[in-house]
Amino acid sequence: MVGQVVRVKRKKLEACMTCPLCNHLLNEATTISLCLHTFCRKCIHKKLTHEKVDCCPICNRHLGRLPTEKLRSDNYLQDMRAKIFPFKGREVKDFEVMPSVALPEKKKGEQRERARDLHTSRADDLVPQGHG
C-alpha cells in the first residue's frame, strides 16, 4: 500500500473524533486508560467530578475510587483532529496530495565514484594530524 492514497469521507472521520458527551469535535482529547474511550477533557472531568460518576459513560467500566486518575491526554488524536478539522478562526490550507516520483537511477560509474569519494573523505578524517 506504499504510495497509495486512501480516501475517507469526512463524516466517517468526524464520527471517530466526536465526543460522545457533548457531540462536538474533540477538544483536548482525553482517554480513559482502562477502556480507551475518548472524550473532551472538560466533558469527562465534569462527568466524573460534578456528577460523581465512577464508571465510563460509554461502557460502564468501573474506574475505582479515584476515576480522574485513569484519564490520559490523547495528544496524538488531538493533533490529528486539529489537522483534519482545524479550529474555527484558524486558517489552514488544504492538504496537497503529490504523486510519488521515482528518483532516476544512477549510472554504475557515478555510484563507484561517489563510493570512492565517500571512502576517501572518511579515511582522511581518521589520519592523525601532525603536532606542528
Describe this entry's structure for a reader.
With 132 residues, this protein is mainly alpha-helical. It has a domain at 9-89: Herpes Virus-1 (2-Layer Sandwich), CATH 3.30.40.10. It is built from four helices and three strands. The protein has helices spanning 10-16, 41-49, 75-84, 108-126, and strands spanning 29-32, 38-40, 71-73. The protein has a three-stranded antiparallel beta sheet with strand order 2-1-3. 11% of the residues are buried.
Briefly, what is this?
By secondary structure, the chain is mainly α.
Distance between the termini: 59 Å
CATH class of the domain at 9-89: Alpha Beta
And the CATH topology of the domain at 9-89? Herpes Virus-1
Structural class: mainly alpha
The helix tally amounts to 4
Strand content: 5-15%
State the helicity in percent bands: 25-40%
**Which sequence of SSEs, written as H and E, runs from N to C?**
HEEHEHH
Task: Give a topology summary.
Elements: H1 10-16, E1 29-32, E2 38-40, H2 41-49, E3 71-73, H3 75-84, H4 108-126
Antiparallel strand pairs: 1-2, 1-3
